[in-house]
Amino acid sequence: MTTINPFESALKQLEKAAKLVNLDPKINEILRHPEHIVQVAVPVIMDDGALKVFEGYRVQHNSARGPYKGGLRFHPQTDLNEVKALAAWMTWKCAVVGIPYGGGKGGITIDSKKLSPAELERLSRSFARAIAPFIGPTVDVPAPDVYTTPQIMAWIADEYGKVTGKPSPAVITGKPLEAGGSQGRDTATAQGGFYVLSGFMQKMNWQPAQMKVAIQGYGNAGSVMAQLLHAAGYKIVAVSDSKGALLDTTSAGMNPAHLAKTKKEKTFAGGEYWNGSVYVREGYKTITNAELLEADVDILVPAALENQITGDNAERIKAKIVLELANGPTTPEGDEILARRQITVLPDILANAGGVTVSYFEWDQNMKGETWDKAQVFTKLEKIMNDAFAAVYAAKEKYNTDMRTAAYISALERLSQAINKKYGW
Ligand code: NAD
């Protein structure tokens, strides 16, 4: 299998939409180049007293529509090309939902699961000091992503406040409530995806009870999605995390409340999780992540990492809908095959935009010194997601194209205006 560079995938996706709408070549050229690429050394004193230096990144892709915005990822496979792609996707995503941000993303190449809690805190604070000169509430506002948590956001906000000499909660979002976080941020990504899926289900006149679902990745995005879908009557038949996957062999469907509880118990006990015999006894069979992607389901929800649905396996995907909670789970080759097979991809830059939308609400509350309740947050989120879905669906019909290209077209209209204004073209 060849290595797929996610930034090249992001540019191919842009190219497809650009051709269809005859995009001004100047706009296209601007969007192909991140505005700033910051690479930093992240020194950390480990528990044994030794100093280790990790590699960190912050890519600021485009700021024509507002401050750079996007998460921070701590993952052993994180590299510059991944962060560049994630930053570009943030630019299109914020434009798709019409929130006043540009796109950025950051990360550290590290296996953070191997760190002690004290080392993780020192790493997060060291990274905050390293990127402090480049971020700020009106410049660049990070957030959580894979293997980063509200607690890590709180450490970064605190350290940034120390470096700059004044508390600035609006420098980062996804904070715990007591550190200036927003109601609903923890469930926002999945909630936004749920609104998008519901919009599409209505268009197709399909009912939740008819739909079997497989979810890849059981973190912030995937586990909350499992709960929302289960509560709405969808049947979850397969789930996975980095350790492996489980398939329901009964006809009952999986109960996410039970999965979450067991995951916590097993994690606390420090034992094996997905391969635990509990599941086998209860009618759950262990399968591979590759098998999960090809499971006999109606909806596949990739909620882990990039490059999962590719030219190598797209022919064997059985789902009718791919709901992309992860960023970049489908490669352009995978997309082509899915489109030919009339499988609808509800694309990342629309489907997972609920997270950044509630991050925007958090930032807005911090900037204005306000606190909104959960109902306010979700009413606003639902409207933004429904409007974005309607605009993307309309572009899909108008240009007779797939939903991803339609989402790019919708984003490009807003981006073109902002870029023209910024450069005075
Ligand atoms: P997380 O750290 O909470 O969870 C990641 C999950 O993926 C974990 O369950 C992990 O075990 C699993 N995983 C890792 N490697 C895997 C593999 N090879 N196969 C299967 N599962 C694997 O992260 P998250 O915040 O849920 O992010 C997941 C995806 O959603 C990422 O692509 C992220 O960029 C995207 N996303 C997240 C947010 C957000 O607000 N958290 C917003 C938009 C998009």
UniProtKB/TrEMBL annotation:
<dbReference type="InterPro" id="IPR033922">
    <property type="entry name" value="NAD_bind_Glu_DH"/>
</dbReference>
<dbReference type="Pfam" id="PF02812">
    <property type="entry name" value="ELFV_dehydrog_N"/>
</dbReference>
<keyword id="KW-0560">Oxidoreductase</keyword>
<dbReference type="GO" id="GO:0006538">
    <property type="term" value="P:L-glutamate catabolic process"/>
</dbReference>
<feature type="binding site">
    <location>
        <position position="93"/>
    </location>
    <ligand>
        <name>substrate</name>
    </ligand>
</feature>
<dbReference type="Pfam" id="PF00208">
    <property type="entry name" value="ELFV_dehydrog"/>
</dbReference>
<feature type="binding site">
    <location>
        <position position="69"/>
    </location>
    <ligand>
        <name>substrate</name>
    </ligand>
</feature>
<dbReference type="InterPro" id="IPR036291">
    <property type="entry name" value="NAD(P)-bd_dom_sf"/>
</dbReference>
<dbReference type="GO" id="GO:0000166">
    <property type="term" value="F:nucleotide binding"/>
</dbReference>
<dbReference type="GO" id="GO:0004352">
    <property type="term" value="F:glutamate dehydrogenase (NAD+) activity"/>
</dbReference>
<feature type="binding site">
    <location>
        <position position="220"/>
    </location>
    <ligand>
        <name>NAD(+)</name>
    </ligand>
</feature>
<dbReference type="InterPro" id="IPR006097">
    <property type="entry name" value="Glu/Leu/Phe/Val/Trp_DH_dimer"/>
</dbReference>
<dbReference type="InterPro" id="IPR014362">
    <property type="entry name" value="Glu_DH"/>
</dbReference>
<dbReference type="InterPro" id="IPR006096">
    <property type="entry name" value="Glu/Leu/Phe/Val/Trp_DH_C"/>
</dbReference>
<feature type="site" description="Important for catalysis">
    <location>
        <position position="145"/>
    </location>
</feature>
<keyword id="KW-0520">NAD</keyword>
<keyword id="KW-0547">Nucleotide-binding</keyword>
<feature type="domain" description="Glutamate/phenylalanine/leucine/valine/L-tryptophan dehydrogenase C-terminal">
    <location>
        <begin position="182"/>
        <end position="423"/>
    </location>
</feature>
<comment type="similarity">
    <text>Belongs to the Glu/Leu/Phe/Val dehydrogenases family.</text>
</comment>
<dbReference type="InterPro" id="IPR006095">
    <property type="entry name" value="Glu/Leu/Phe/Val/Trp_DH"/>
</dbReference>
<feature type="active site" description="Proton donor">
    <location>
        <position position="105"/>
    </location>
</feature>
<dbReference type="InterPro" id="IPR046346">
    <property type="entry name" value="Aminoacid_DH-like_N_sf"/>
</dbReference>
<feature type="binding site">
    <location>
        <position position="189"/>
    </location>
    <ligand>
        <name>NAD(+)</name>
    </ligand>
</feature>
<feature type="binding site">
    <location>
        <position position="359"/>
    </location>
    <ligand>
        <name>substrate</name>
    </ligand>
</feature>
<protein>
    <recommendedName>
        <fullName>Glutamate dehydrogenase</fullName>
    </recommendedName>
</protein>
